Amino acid sequence: MSLPERIVTQRLRLILVTPDDAADMRAGRRQERWHPSYPRPDDVDAASLLRPDDPWGPRHVVLEQQAVGTIGCFGPPEDGETEIGFGLVSEARGQRVATEALTAYAEETDRLGVRLTARVEPDNAPSLKVLARCGFTELRGSTPEGELVLARPVP
User: Fold this and answer.
1) Is the dihedral of CA 79, 109, 120, 138 positive or negative?
2) How far apart are alpha carbons 131 and 103 in whole angstroms?
3) Fewest CB within 10 A of the end CB: N or C in the chain?
4) How many helices (H) and strands (E) does the chain have?
5) For residue range 73-93, what is the model confidence (pLDDT) as tens digits?
6) Long-range contacts of residues 92-97, Cβ cutoff 8 Å, at least 24 apart
7) pTM above 0.70, yes or no
């Protein structure tokens, strides 16, 4: 049970972060193929979760020829479920990039029979909209920090 190395949509490529990418992100080194505002602190945090050869780890969200954010799970599925996170540089927001990336990722996890969950601040309206558009309809409660926990049923 594994995700493909690359997930591709009409506009996007979701490409696994490599160990070299993660090292550059953590060290503050820039790569030509990254948007000037990338990586964000959350992207650097995601890169810290990298495990070599793990298709469930962080991926660059590539729009045109530039990485504009990350998407990925916090580990491989356990009991048929895993948590996903995503984020974009501000310049890429409002173009449905996050919705397109999450939809493509969810199609792959659906194929594998894996349920996705996500945590979100209750006042983060843009992320709540993305999650709702992508079928995260099950409210599981909240974390001790007050984040909502949402799940996406597997069709």
Assistant:
1) negative
2) 9
3) C
4) 4, 8
5) 999 999 999 999 999 999 999
6) 92/35, 92/61, 92/63, 92/68, 93/126, 95/63, 97/11, 97/12, 97/61, 97/63, 97/68, 97/69
7) yes
